[in-house]
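Shape matters. Shown next:

___
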Amino acid sequence: MSIHAVKRSQCHLAWDNSIPPVLRVSSGAAVSFDCLDASNGQLDVSSTLATLAALDFAQLDQVNGPIFVEGAAPGDTLRVDVLDVRPGAWGWSALLPGFGVLLDEFPEPALKIWALHAHEDGKDAAAMDGEYGYAWFDEGKGIRIPLRPFAGEMGVAPGKPGAHSTIPPYATGGNVDTRHLTKGSTLYLPIEVEGALFSIGDGHAAQGDGEVSGSAIETTMNVTVRLTVLRDKPYVKTPHFETRSPHKSDEEFYCTTGIDSDIREAMRAAVRNMIAFLVAEHGLTRVDAYMLCGVAGDLRMHEVVDMPNYVIGMMLPKSIFTKRKSQAV
C-alpha cells in the first residue's frame, strides 16, 4: 500500500478553509503524519517550570495538514480510519493557567516529564490487549499508566470563513481529545468545504476521559490514517466514531461521585473527591493526584434524569496500582 507523508513543518495554527493544502490525495488513500507535541516543540525532555512559564500560548496545538481529498464536497462525510499511532520516547503533563476543571483551585503551574516505554509487539500480554506500552507515574508507589496513544486533534476545515482557534472542538472535529480514537478506531467527520481539508495533531500517549487536569501525556507522534469520502451518512453532523473498549475486559475501578443541580459543579466535585481519595489512600500530593486524574481517570454521567440533581462519577482503574496498599512506599 502506498502511503503519502506529511512532515512536521507542514502544520498550521488555525482551522481556516483558506489555508492551501499541503497534499492532494484520492479517496481511500493512506497518509502518514510526523507531528510535534502540543507545545509545538517548546518543551523537551529537559524542560523545567521556568520553561513552562516561558511558553508562547499562541503557538500551542498546531495541526499537520491540511489534506485535500479528491471528490469530497459539502454534505459528504469523511471516514478516518486510524491505522497506526506511535508516540515518542518521552512526554509531558502540566497544570497550565486557565486550563483544567479545577483551575481556580490549582493556580500554580506544575510540570511532569515522563519516560514512555513501548512493549515488544506480540511478546507482551498487555500489547495483545491494545496497550502500546507503559509509563511510571510513581515507580516507588507502583503507579503505572498504560499507554494507548491517539491524536487529540483530528478535523476538517469549517465552512465558516476565517481563522478558528485549534484549542476548542467544533462540529467538524478539531481538539476533540477523545481517548477512544486509538489504533483500529474509525472517526466520521461532516464535510463543509470542497476537499474536506483534513488536519491532525496533538499526540497523546495516555489520557483519561475528560482530560480533567488540562493535559494528557503530551508527546510527539507518528500517525497513519486512511481518508475515505462517504455519501451515505447525511446524519453525521458532528464527529461520530467506532472503537473498542480502552480497558481490559476484567478491569476493576474505584469511583468517586459528585452530586449537584449544576452538572458542571457535580463534575468538579467528582474530581475533587477523587483527589481527596488519592491523597488519603495513596499518599499523593494534591497536585500529583489532580494530574493522575487527568491522565488515567474517566468522567462518567451516572444519572441525569432524577431532577433536580445530577450524579457524575470519576472512575480510576485499579490496575494502575501495581502494589497492594500495604506494599506502597
Q: What stands out?
A: The two ends are 50 Å apart (CA to CA).
